[in-house]
């Protein structure tokens, strides 16, 4: 018997990892894909050709070079980063969330976030061996001020995540409640602004008032989900410490060149975001007129919707060629909820028709 045949995987892999479920990506071949909050618009043909020439000329035989700092500067300018702050890049926001958990892994550390929320906050805590404290939202998906402040006082979290707007509920939080949370925080407060291109607010204008607040964004919702660029802004001294746990060369040559190219043509992506915000209003109005459907106002490129039977409606829509996200099992507050990504005008018409027929 070889060493490989004697291998007992269950003894090698952590017990908590064995009990986890891998992040599920739905099969979307041949479907109207409205399940992952992607920008449905591709680059115009002329820009595709221009970008192809740039990428083809890159030195792919070399490790990423100082050009990555050009991207850091371009993103800092794009986000209007204040003086005295710095920017750190990640392979999507997911990597930044993992690196924060790693950097803050001190004895007794914990991570706190409202629930339902982005699954990676809790997953990063679990994988790093940190305690995760989830604080339920109100029945209408607002922050529970008293519960949040009580949890902060009890658990003294090292990191508090405030998704702004939230996923999957798509709403923003009350400004006064947010400020109370920021003031009460004993550690870091991280504003996750993944959906900033579609939001009516940003915390960037207030970030300079605090030495313990970080702001995280991604280029995925900007229109580059396939490029995997996340970035985090914060006080220079704080970013310098977290940046020490970042793997070298975590941003590939192809990725940073794509991101730089996109920022040079930011007006194209801004127009796409404007179109998606307009389509969001059209979809929301249609949902409000639909019998048996409850939709929540959105500041993102998705709309949370409650239907009488989420599983039946989801399967009905999928059988009609439209793929959305069934979030009804993610948290008790999300009972019978579907998350609908806002697509193009034609995709949205197909989605609304499939939804109506599947109720």
What report would you give on this structure?
This protein is of the alpha/beta class and 359 residues long. It has two domains: 9-36 and 267-358, Aspartate Aminotransferase, domain 1 (Alpha-Beta Complex); 60-264, 3-Layer(aba) Sandwich (Aspartate Aminotransferase, domain 2). The chain is built from 14 helices and 13 strands. The strands form three sheets. The protein has a seven-stranded mixed beta sheet. Strands 9-10-13-12 form a four-stranded antiparallel beta sheet. Helix 6 links the parallel strand 3 (110-115) and strand 4 (131-136). Helix 4 (67-79) packs parallel to helix 11 (253-264) and helix 5 (92-103) crosses helix 6 (119-128). It is globular and about 55 Å long.
Summarize the structure.
The chain has 359 residues and is of the alpha/beta class.
- Give the class from helix and strand content and strand pairing: alpha/beta
| Estimated helix fraction | 40-55%
Distance between the termini: 57 Å
* Oligomeric state as shown: single chain
List descriptors:
359 residues, alpha/beta, Aspartate Aminotransferase, domain 1, Aspartate Aminotransferase, domain 2, 2 domains, seven-stranded mixed sheet, four-stranded antiparallel sheet, 13 strands
């Amino acid at each position: 018997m070889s060493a490989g045949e004697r291998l007992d995987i269950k003894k090698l892999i952590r017990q908590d990892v064995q009990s986890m479920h891998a992040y599920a990506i739905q099969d979307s071949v041949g479907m109207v894909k409205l399940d992952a909050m992607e920008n449905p618009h591709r680059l115009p043909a002329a820009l595709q050709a221009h970008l192809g020439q740039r990428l083809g000329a890159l030195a792919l035989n070399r490790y990423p070079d100082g050009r990555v700092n050009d991207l850091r500067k371009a993103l800092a300018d794009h986000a209007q980063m204040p003086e005295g702050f710095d920017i750190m890049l990640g392979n999507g926001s997911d990597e930044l969330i993992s690196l924060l958990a790693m950097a803050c892994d001190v004895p007794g550390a914990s991570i706190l976030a409202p629930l339902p929320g982005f699954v990676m906050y809790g997953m990063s805590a679990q994988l790093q061996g940190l305690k995760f404290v989830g604080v339920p939202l109100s029945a209408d998906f607002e922050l529970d001020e008293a519960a949040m402040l009580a949890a902060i006082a009890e658990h003294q979290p090292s990191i508090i995540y405030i998704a702004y707007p939230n996923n999957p509920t798509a709403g923003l939080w009350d400004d006064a409640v947010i400020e109370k949370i920021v003031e009460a925080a004993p550690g870091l407060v991280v504003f996750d602004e993944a959906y900033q291109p579609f939001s009516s607010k940003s915390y960037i204008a207030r970030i300079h008032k605090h030495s313990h607040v970080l702001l995280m964004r991604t280029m995925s919702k900007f229109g580059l989900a396939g490029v995997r660029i996340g970035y985090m802004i914060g006080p220079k001294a704080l970013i310098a410490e977290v940046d020490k746990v970042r793997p070298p060369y975590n941003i590939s040559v192809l990725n940073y060149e794509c991101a730089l190219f996109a920022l040079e043509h930011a007006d194209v992506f801004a127009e796409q975001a404007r179109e998606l915000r307009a389509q969001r209003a059209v979809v929301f109005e249609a949902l409000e007129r639909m019998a048996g459907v409850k939709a929540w106002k959105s500041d993102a490129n998705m709309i949370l919707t409650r239907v009488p039977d989420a599983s039946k409606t989801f399967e009905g829509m999928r059988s009609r060629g439209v793929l959305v996200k069934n979030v009804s099992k993610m948290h008790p507050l999300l009972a019978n909820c579907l998350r609908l990504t806002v697509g193009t005008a034609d995709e949205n018409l197909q989605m609304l028709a499939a939804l109506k027929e599947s109720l």
